[in-house]
Amino acid sequence: MSGAPALEKLSSNRVFEGELTKYKFKSAALGGLDAQFNLFMPLNPGGAKVPVLVYLAGVPGEDDDWDFGTGAGFYINATKPEYAKNYNMATHITVELPQVIEAAGIAIDWKRQSIFGHSMGGHGALTLYLSSTTKQYRSASAFAPISNPTKCPWGEKAFKGYLEGGLAEGAKYDATELISKATEPLHILVDYGTGDNFYKQGQLLPENFLKTARDAGYDEFQVRVRSQEGYDHSYYFISTFASDHIHFHANFLKA
Amino acid sequence: MSGAPALEKLSSNRVFEGELTKYKFKSAALGGLDAQFNLFMPLNPGGAKVPVLVYLAGVPGEDDDWDFGTGAGFYINATKPEYAKNYNMATHITVELPQVIEAAGIAIDWKRQSIFGHSMGGHGALTLYLSSTTKQYRSASAFAPISNPTKCPWGEKAFKGYLEGGLAEGAKYDATELISKATEPLHILVDYGTGDNFYKQGQLLPENFLKTARDAGYDEFQVRVRSQEGYDHSYYFISTFASDHIHFHANFLKA
């Protein structure tokens, strides 16, 4: 009897040189709630194991209060009692999803993982990469990430809401705090647009992340943060630079 | 006093190396109804005129009966009295849009136009290209086009509904009928997926178009119709081959 829940296939579409499949399963990390994810697998006649690049969405939630609630767990493990059962998004991404996919017999080489994301998902990608003591991911990248959440309204609200220890506990989920203490080699790429209203409102703070990375001794070959003139927070921005990011990760995943 | 209605800018997003703008105007060809279109313009510091590639969407309509109604004019000019005032989509695309855009001072070189589209929009692209006596478009391409509408349920319904002369009048809006009579050099690319349910149901009939093109003497360098294994009718199919189609048109637009 396997401990991993069964994957239910919801839909499947041929796209580019592979197949995109939508799956559903009962997530223990999310308190038994249904979790969904999409998995792209290349055409792979030999069945050789392939590397995986995890993408974390920005705002998948359905709530009016979109930065707090069902779909918007900030990719942390909640510690406040009222959330601790259903909001363990960090465990969901880093531990549960690989277990569930592996148990389903899908041919992924888990020794070759990288991670990227947009906005809150960019925050998730950077923090899960930087906080992994097992070097789970080979590289991380982000579009318009919330780069210093203990210093912006969205992050303050999330950490005070989800964490018993509030902002102090939130430091371990803050990319800027994490990189200030980092010592190992890093592979990070960040893009943000100067026309992004959330950037202008001080929700993203990529400059804080960049300055702290440089202060910690990381040069542009290890941590690259690019300001993109005129781009906003939307899908148009992501789609413009998505190809760049995938090529960036391929450098490390193919090795 | 200009005859062309004013363009209202609804939104604008930087994307790739340019700007995508959504416009609205009161369309005479559509009986005074509001018409919307998106225009991508490359960053163009010199202001030189650029060629235009027209994309016709498949099902932009909002109706339950999606293949008949507001958004789904089949890219023809209706002749039945109850539709003739509001359904002149052929005129809207080929005459009115260029006039309105030109009047707004947008720097397009109208001598370099090509056209493509998806599903009903693919039908529109092929028929507007093939029926232009002025060679308005240099090339045409289509994703999963309705290729022989006088022989499929969707086309029969549309032509009988919109046209006084029914299917007989519809022949001039049927890509297969049009290519059977064509004599001039052509530049056409068509892709369809073998996993497309509408293809399987006989709504698209690309084989009819291909066979008729060959019978009319067009080889694969002038009319290429590609069967794509396993792809369906969705955006995943379009996105996979969009780059191919744009490069195809660039060959002719850059000349």
From TrEMBL, chains A, B:
Record-linked Gene3D superfamilies: alpha/beta hydrolase
EC number of the protein: 3.1.2.12
Active site: 119, 196, 233
GO function terms (MF aspect): carboxylic ester hydrolase activity; S-formylglutathione hydrolase activity
Example GO BP: formaldehyde catabolic process
Keywords, sorted A to Z: Hydrolase, Serine esterase
InterPro entries referenced in this protein's UniProt entry, alphabetically: AB_hydrolase_fold, Esterase-like, S-formylglutathione_hydrol
Top enzyme class: hydrolase
GO annotations of cellular component type: cytosol
SUPFAM superfamilies in UniProt: alpha/beta-Hydrolases
Origin superkingdom: Eukaryota
Similarity comment: family membership: Belongs to the esterase D family.
Listed name of the protein: S-formylglutathione hydrolase
Organism of derivation: Agrocybe chaxingu
